[in-house]
Design a protein that fits this description.
Elements: H1 5-34, E1 39-46, H2 49-58, H3 66-69, E2 74-80, H4 83-96, E3 98-99, E4 105-106, E5 121-126, E6 144-150, H5 151-163, H6 173-212, H7 222-231, H8 233-244, E7 247-250, H9 254-263, H10 269-275, H11 279-289, E8 302-305, H12 306-313, H13 318-322, H14 329-341
Parallel strand pairs: 2-6, 7-8
Antiparallel strand pairs: 1-2, 3-5, 4-5, 5-6
Helix pairs in contact: 1-2, 5-6, 6-7, 8-11, 11-14
Pfam families: RelA_SpoT
Domain RelA/SpoT: 44-171
InterPro entries: NT_sf (IPR043519), RelA_SpoT (IPR007685)
């Protein structure tokens, strides 16, 4: 049906679709966070009036009722970091929503080996059993299109759109081979990112095992520092003392601890371990730092990080401090001088 009334009817209810998109975007973020999946971005959109009208005309005769038959009036795009995250997200969404299989696809699977393109997973869903809840009931029959893609897939799609070619047949033959090679590079980049992530995870696990067994003869890098901070009894003891003093030891930026190690000449985790103050010294450092720390707004605890504790304990100079932090010397120096005055 191509009745001109459809555009007017959509205009009357579009605000409901806008509210649905916002509510759904927040829900998806909560679902991903609860599953421990960190993504680059979750973005959404609601089809404009003109786009709605244009699609009805272009698909003349396809829709008996475009408001219920059109599957992409509301769309959410989830941009993941890694290919394996895409698979996890698709599986997760499939369990949370009612998937309309006949409208859902992995567009990459549709490409022949000699076709260029690097596309994403498309899921068309309804909210399913959530429609039984009062706050979701009015959205029961509305289909939503999820696009789940990696950052590389998103970059490819954005550039492909910018070039203006919607179909392979639209591309001049001399350019098709170049685009094929380019899309292969994007795909290879995703595969390599996943491989590197897997190697980092294995290395982090190896470092964690070493720290747990007291083997601290590890070169200083982001992974070894992270493993040390997460598994060191000494760090846990400092965190406990901070908590007892009304403070919260922040995970902080690991770069700050790496830079602190470099400033103080530590090249192994064992040497960093030796830089940390013992129990009595930690209490004196925390006491000296207390008056210049900031309150964490969520729990009214003073925020302190491991790098600043180490620098305060060793009486770092301004030059050393500035190699670790940008700004904050005046406050740090107050704590430093308070500690030095204690002898």
């Amino acid at each position: 049906m191509t009745s001109p009334n459809w555009k007017a009817e959509y205009a009357e209810v579009r605000s409901m679709y806008v509210a649905y998109e916002k509510k759904l975007r927040e829900l998806v973020r909560e679902i991903l966070e609860h599953a421990g999946i960190d993504v680059f971005q979750v973005e959404g959109r609601v089809k404009t009036l003109d786009s709605f009208d244009e699609k009805i005309r272009r698909k003349s005769g396809k829709y008996d009722n475009p408001l219920t038959d059109m599957t992409d009036l509301v769309g959410l795009r989830i941009i993941a970091h890694y290919l394996e995250d895409v698979d996890r997200i698709v599986e997760l969404l499939g369990g949370e929503f009612e998937v309309r299989e006949e409208h859902s696809m992995n567009k990459q699977d549709e490409l022949a080996p000699d076709q260029f393109g690097y596309t994403s997973n498309h899921l068309v869903v309804r909210i399913g059993s959530r429609s039984e809840r009062p706050e979701w009931a009015k959205y029961a029959g509305i289909s939503v299109e999820f696009q789940v893609r990696t950052m590389s897939q998103h970059a490819w799609a954005a550039m492909h759109h910018k070039l203006g070619y919607k179909r392979e047949a639209d591309v001049p033959i001399p350019l098709q081979r170049k685009l094929f090679r380019l899309s292969a590079l994007f795909e290879m980049a995703d595969e390599q990112f996943s491989t590197i992530k897997d190697e980092i995870d294995k290395l982090s696990g190896k470092y964690s095992d070493s720290v747990k067994h007291g083997d601290l003869d590890l070169d200083v890098d982001a992974q070894s520092i992270d493993a040390y901070v997460r598994n060191s009894p000494k760090v846990r003891a400092i965190a406990a003392m901070a908590k007892n003093s009304g403070m919260k030891l922040l995970d902080g930026n690991l770069d700050e601890l790496v830079n602190t190690a470099a400033v103080l000449g530590a090249t192994t985790i064992e040497e960093i371990d030796q830089l940390l103050p013992d129990e009595s010294s930690t209490r004196r450092v925390l006491d000296a730092m207390g008056p210049v720390l900031d309150l964490a707004p969520e729990d009214d605890l003073l925020e302190v990080d491991l790098a600043s504790i180490v620098l305060t304990f060793h009486g770092a100079t301004q030059e050393q401090f500035d190699r670790v932090y940008v700004g904050g010397w005046e406050e740090f120096n107050i704590a430093r001088e308070r500690l030095l005055s204690q002898g």
